Amino acid sequence: MGEERDKTDSGPRPESTAGALIAAALEIFGRKGFDSTSTREIAAVAKTNIASISYHFGGKAGLRIACAEAFAAHIGALINSLTAHEPTSPTEAEDLLLTLIDRLASHLIGSAEMRPLVAFVLREISDGGPGIDIIYKAMIGPSHQRLCRIWALATGEDPDAEAVKIFVFSIIGQIVYFRIGTAIVTRRMGWTDIGPGEAAKIVQVLKANLRDLIAARRRLPK
Amino acid sequence: MGEERDKTDSGPRPESTAGALIAAALEIFGRKGFDSTSTREIAAVAKTNIASISYHFGGKAGLRIACAEAFAAHIGALINSLTAHEPTSPTEAEDLLLTLIDRLASHLIGSAEMRPLVAFVLREISDGGPGIDIIYKAMIGPSHQRLCRIWALATGEDPDAEAVKIFVFSIIGQIVYFRIGTAIVTRRMGWTDIGPGEAAKIVQVLKANLRDLIAARRRLPK
DNA sequence: AGAATTCAATCAAACGTTTGAAAGGTCAAA
DNA sequence: TTTGACCTTTCAAACGTTTGATTGAATTCT
User: Cβ contacts (< 8 Å) between A220 and chain B: which residues?
Assistant: First the structure.
């Protein structure tokens, strides 16, 4: 029973061997994919022995799940911090919506700190990996539901309507694509990469889009 | 100990070994990723010997590039067929824009025929594979540039403006996400998968979004 | 016949995992 | 305080399997 976690620190711990393995695996899994990552490379980056992976996580697959759990734990606090305030009026909901999209996009696109975590999650999703379940429950499910509620309050639509759910996904899709298709975007834009400066320009466009969409829906009577 | 193969078959199409390998690789690469796909599985699906891959394409990496080229050739005709008509007025541009998004989204999300091709391309993009160059030149570059032109005509903005380019990517991102995040979307929506029926609902939302965004931009004076 | 292609068999390298021993820590008994 | 048994953790080495690629003979086509 060698399971222990440090509650004072957020994210994977670089101190213990298990924490170092999770941190290393999270980064390499995200960058190269699960199958393309060898246990030897993970152990080397974590500065430990290969056998530690089997010892602590039962194997490579177990380490993958531990990475998803570590991400969920790390992102949980961030989600909760954004869930503190609940809007009561449509205008308040609109402001909150714009703020949330700003934060979400900045973290997803621009943040260098979040880059490995985001890469891991996106790869897990597009690969249909076993981490989807954990990630969905910890992050996507609650976030999407909440965004639907706020959007419904802002526009007067039904938060449980199919079209509203799809719409919220389309907004998220706008953001996610700039991470997935970074190689394409940078090439077309003439950028070398998407740093904070480029991310700011993108966020500006996405916020303008959302503003226009809210205005268009608000104009329609219930 | 072998099974006889009738070469004088009257099968549906007499496919060459190279063609069968490309078709098989395209499908498996798209579904499982390049590294996770073994040459043995490709050869088995293509009903040929492993050595054929090295013989025809010089190796696994060569087959990957051949897949990208095959996709580019296949998609080139489709792109050209949509590029036939050039709009002259803003309203004409708006109609064309909506039509193009409809076609693009239907092919990307709903089409069962295109599914393997789309999966391969998206994986190549997110993996930063060597096929990006071919795919960009054959499909993404021309398409994006053209969409920028049409959008600019519809709204009176500058087709070379940075914000316009980013905006067009955001529209594409809306579509792509429903392919990338199919596992997430179906789970939240309570669907089993995204077939033609679900795709139609999504396209409807995306077209409404685009309509609203055009109206909002059009309203602003030049 | 001669070139082009496909085949079974085989190669070295890399893979994830396992092994048994060594190292580190804890704690009750001496 | 010292001792020694016990448990956890780390380590080098090796395991069997699978990988992409290659070989030379067999087959097919021109």
Answer: none
